[in-house]
Amino acid sequence: MPENRRQAPVAIFLSAMSGGGAERAMLNLANRFAELEQPVDMVLGRREGPYLNQLDPRVRVIDLGVTRMLKALPALNAYMRRERPAALMPALAHTHIVSLVGKKLYRWPSRLVLSIQNTPSASAGIAPRWIERNWPIFVKALYGGADDTVAISQGVAEDIRRLTGGKASPHVIHNPVVTPSFFRQLEEEATHPWFRDKSVPVILAAGRLTNQKDYPTMLEAFARLLARRPARLIILGEGELKDELVALCSSLSISDHVAFAGFASNPYSLMKAANLFVLSSRWEGLANVIAESLACGTPVVSTDCPSGPSEILAGGKYGRLVPVGDPAALADAIQASLESPPDKALLARRGADFAVENIAQHYLDILLPNG
Q1: What pTM was estimated for this model as a whole?
Q2: What fold does the segment set 180-353 form as a domain?
Q3: Using DSSP, how many helices (H) and how many strands (E) does the chain show?
Q4: pLDDT tens digits, one per residue of 268-287
Q5: What is the CATH number of domain 3-176+355-367?
Q6: What integer pLDDT is reported at residue 280 of this predicted model?
Q7: Domain with CATH 3.40.50.2000 in the chain
Q8: How confident is the model at residue 5 (pLDDT cuts 50, 70, 90)?
C-alpha cells in the first residue's frame, strides 16, 4: 500500500442523516474519525436529516441527490471512481445491496465493509419496507461478496453466518454511544414539564413509531401499571404508526398520562431525568438506546428480543428482561424497577463500555487493515 493511502477517505454510506440509532452510531464514528485526523466522507442518498448539523465540520458530506436508494448506483459509482476512498462502509440494508451490486459490477478497488445494524431473519416478512422483508434473501445471495462485515451484536453475527453458510463471518463491534458530546448534553436541563413534579415517576421510551418497536404492548403494559400506581410515559420518536398509537391511548383511557414528544435532538437529558427507560421491541440489532440509558445511570426494562438487549444487560444483571409481546410481564417488570431501582453507578459503568474511543479504533482496524 502506498504511504499516502491512509489519507484516502473512509466513506460511510447512508440514505440520509435520519434520526435513527444506526444514523446516530455512524454520526459518532464519523466525528471520532475526524478527531483522529482520518479523512472521512459521509455519503448520503440525499443531504437531509436531523443529525446533519451534528457532523464535525471536518466530515465532508457527499450528496448523491437521489430519493430512492435503488437509483443511487450511478451517482455512487461516479463518487467511487472520482474519490477512490480507502473503504466504503454502508450501514443499512438498502445501502448494503446497492454497494454490493456496485462492487460486483464496477470492480471498485476500495474495501467494502458492511456495518450490519439489525437482525435480517427477525425482520423477514414483517418489516414495512420490501427490502427488509426480503432481507435474508439478499444476505444469502450477496453478502459473501463484501471484503469484511461488522455486526453490532453476537445475535446479528450469528444470523449472518447462518444465512451465508459461513461465507460471511462478521466481527462483532457494538455501536458507540458514549461520546464527549454525550456528556455535554447530559448537563442540559430536561425541559418537559412532567419532570418538574417529582412525586410522579416518568418512564421514557425512544424509537421510531413502527411495527418493530411494538408500542402497543408497551401502552397496554402502561395501562396495567396505571391501575396500580401513578406514572407518566414520554415516547420520543416519529413514524407511520403515530395516529394508531394515539388512538390506542384513547381506547385504553391513558391519553392524559402519555406524551408523544417526537424527535429530540438531545434525548440524553431526558434519559438522565427519567426514572426508568423501557424498550418493547419485537427485534433489534443491538438497541443503542439501552446502552445510552445505562450510561445516563437510568434503570432499564426491555423485552428479551433478538438481538442485543440481553447482551447489553448481561442476561438481566443490568436491567430486567421480559418476553416479547407480554404486556403483563412488562407491567410487572416496570413496577418492580420503579420500586427497587438498581444502583446508578453500576449502570453507568456498564454504559461506559460503549465509549466511542475504543470502538472507533476497532472499526478503523477493519476498514484500514494495513494502516
Answers
A1: 0.89
A2: Rossmann fold (3.40.50)
A3: 16, 13
A4: 999 999 999 999 999 999 99
A5: 3.40.50.2000
A6: 98
A7: 3-176+355-367, 180-353
A8: very low
